[in-house]
Amino acid sequence: MQKLKDKVALITGGSKGIGFGIAEALLKQGIKVAITSRSLASAEAAAQKLGHDVLALEADVKDFSSQQEVINKIIAKWGKLDFLIANAGVGHFASIEDLSASEWNDTIDTNLTGVFYSIKAALPELKKTTGYIFTIASLAGTNFFAGGAAYNASKFGLVGFTQAIMLDLRQYGIKVTTIMPGSVSTHFNEHEPDAEKDAWKIQPEDMGQMVVDLLNMHPRVLPSKVEVRPTKTANG
């Protein structure tokens, strides 16, 4: 608790799902948390549910200046940034015959370029604190499937990107981890979570606990790529 207390974290796409679960877990450790959403109302509603002094910000990861403004607001409020969890993501799934150019661009611009923007904007502050960067990828970043051209491309790219910057940034003492979950009970792709039907899936709070566990590892240890999947399948 003392190690993490009063650290400052930014979670992109933190208003629901995995981002919300990570925010809950970090707050329990005494970490100050900023969350972003493309909707300020959604970010503020999430902050109310979290029940702590959470900085709720409207931002689109596809806009670099928006990410820079987020960092400026965090520094104005807390004076530093220790952790970045680049979580914001979207999914468009269709055969290449039916996948539109706008769906392709939205997926790549959010899931890959958006992470680059978030990290690029945060990096000067993270170098000051020898911070920690997490990217939330997917098992779809190593396992391809029909209808997944855009999503697979974005997540394969994100895994490679994260591993490369891990090598770039270790010289500054900055740790970089990509987490690649399988099925998680979230609102992703317009899914409505169901406590009973989704009980077999990884839960957002599980993802939050994983981030806390990684933060608590000895500084000399770097799990640079973590694959995680449900213990059982939907059919048991």
From TrEMBL:
Domain Ketoreductase: where?
A: 7-188
Per the record, the domain of life is: Bacteria
Q: Which Gene3D superfamilies match?
A: NAD(P)-binding Rossmann-like Domain (3.40.50.720)
The alphabetized list of GO BP terms reads: monocarboxylic acid metabolic process
Q: Which InterPro entries match?
A: KR_dom, NAD(P)-bd_dom_sf, Sc_DH/Rdtase_CS, SDR, SDR_fam
Supply the SUPFAM superfamilies for this chain.
NAD(P)-binding Rossmann-fold domains
Q: Record's family? A: Belongs to the short-chain dehydrogenases/reductases (SDR) family.
Q: What is this protein called?
A: SDR family oxidoreductase
